[in-house]
Every structure is written in C-alpha cells, then in structure tokens.
Amino acid sequence: MKDAFGLPQSLLVLGGTSEIALATARRLIARRTRTVWLAGRPSPDLDRAAEELRGLGAEVRTVAFDALDPAAHEEALGKVFAEGDVDMVLLAFGTLGDQAHDERDPRAAVRVAQTNYTGAVSSGLVCAGALQAQGHGSLVVLSSVAGERARRANFIYGSSKAGLDAFAQGLGDALYGTGVHVMVVRPGFVRTRMTAGLPEAPLATTPEAVAVAVELGLRRRSETVWVPGALRVVMSALRHLPRAVFRRLPV
C-alpha cells in the first residue's frame, strides 16, 4: 500500500527500459518502493535494468510485454496483478519515429500511432481495471507537450501523444472516486537516447528531473504535471496562437 505521502511500495513499469521510467524507479526505490515489475520486450537491456534496480535493494521481476501486441496484454499484465496488489503503474513506453521517413512510409507512421496510442489504450485499460478491482493505486501516464498542438516537425508523433493525453484524461475522469488516481505527465524535450542527435529545444530537461516531478505529483495527487513547470504557460500561449502565425514559428 502507499504511504501517507502517496508513494508506492510496489511499481509496475510498462516500458521497462525507458530512461525516464528507470530514473523514476530509482527515485521511488530510494524512498520506499520495494517491489518492481519491469514490463518490456525481452532483451539484454531489460535484464540490465532489472539488475541495476536489484542493486538498489528492490525485488525486481521482468515480464514480457509488447505494446504492439494488444491481444496479449490482458494475459501478460494479469499475471502481475495476480501476484498481489500493485500500488503504481507507470505507462512509459513510446517511440519518436522519424517524421521525414514516416511521411513517405505510411506503415511506419502507423507503427508510431499503434505504439504510442493503441498500445497505451489497451494496456492502460487492462491496468485501470485491475487497479479498480483492488480498490486503490495510481496510473501515471507519460504524455508529452508535443500532444498540445501538432507541429510540422513532428505531427505524427505529436498526434499520437495528443490521443494518448486525451485518453488518459478521460480515463482519470472515469475512475474519479474509485480510489484509483490517474496522473498525466507532460514533459518537454527530455535528453535521452531517443532524442540523441536532435536539436535541443528550449526548456530541455532530464529523466531525473521528470522523476522528481512524478514524485511531487504523487505526493500532491496531481492530475497533470508539466516538466518543467514553465511549459504550462508557454504551451498555453502557443495553443492559442492563430494557425497562420503558429506555422511560421521555428518550433
């Protein structure tokens, strides 16, 4: 069960090799988390992530999970919840894609959408149902400021995150009053392997900074968290710019 500050004893990570997710897991283990499930495609990276967290004192297990295989989500994730209550689910998987390439290859664009949106809808609903059945828990969804308004430079990725964000907000409203807390996290540009080589955007942040924001959001039972916080004001302004002006901005 969570402590008085809303921090979990048990954690399920969907996207077990995500740098943001692992930074969050490390921070939560340093506080009180003792059981961690890392769900992802079996790989040496997943095994290394598990070993690292075990070295911090947590009991860590891995589970085979593929966002692109929704038919297997209920069985795979059901096995985790069958082992006992899960205090927090962190939905952290996603793919950036390659905008220029994906515009020319619709199948590649669909893969981005299926990973970031369809896979999240499927696994998110499975986990939400399990959390509701146990009567408590938090579902933390890593969204992105890219979903706030589609940009020419990454509208395929941005549109998938917009769908994810809307889904998570609606799910949070559906679960309100059930004991299940849904929190949407909207980071800006995060310095990770996924963004390596890309021009760094203003207000860039780190996985560790996102982890700090997630912990604070859990303590406050926030519904939406921006990382860094200044992006809330920036995106509010950009969201309301006339389209003719917005498309001319170097964003």
Oligomer type: single chain
**Mean pLDDT, rounded to whole units?**
93
* CATH topology description: Rossmann fold
Helix content: 40-55%
Give the domain tally: 1
Envelope shape = globular
Looking at the overall shape, the CATH architecture is: 3-Layer(aba) Sandwich
Distance between the termini: 43 Å
CATH class: Alpha Beta
**Structural category:** alpha/beta
Number of helices: 9
List the strand order in the largest sheet: 3-2-1-4-5-6-7
Question: What kind of sheet is the major sheet?
Answer: 7 strands, parallel
Total beta strands: 7
Q: Which consecutive residue ranges, at least 5 long each, have pLDDT under 50?
A: none
EC number: 1.1.1.333
Keywords: Oxidoreductase
Protein name: Decaprenylphospho-beta-D-erythro-pentofuranosid-2-ulose 2-reductase
GO molecular function, one term: oxidoreductase activity
Structure commentary:
By secondary structure, the protein is of the alpha/beta class. The protein contains 9 helices and 7 strands. The protein has a single domain, classed as NAD(P)-binding Rossmann-like Domain (Rossmann fold). Helix 1 crosses helix 7 (207-220) and helix 5 packs parallel to helix 6. The longest helix has 29 residues, at 106-134. The chain starts with 9 loop residues before the first strand and ends in a 5-residue tail after the last helix. The mean pLDDT is 93. It is an enzyme of class 1 (oxidoreductase).
Question: Helix and strand layout, with pairings?
Answer:
Blueprint: E1 10-14, H1 19-31, E2 35-40, H2 44-54, E3 59-64, H3 73-82, E4 88-91, H4 99-104, H5 106-134, E5 137-142, H6 155-175, E6 180-187, H7 207-220, E7 224-227, H8 231-239, H9 243-246
Parallel strand pairs: 1-2, 1-4, 2-3, 4-5, 5-6, 6-7
Helix pairs in contact: 1-7, 3-5, 5-6
GO molecular function: oxidoreductase activity
EC number: 1.1.1.333
Family: Belongs to the short-chain dehydrogenases/reductases (SDR) family.
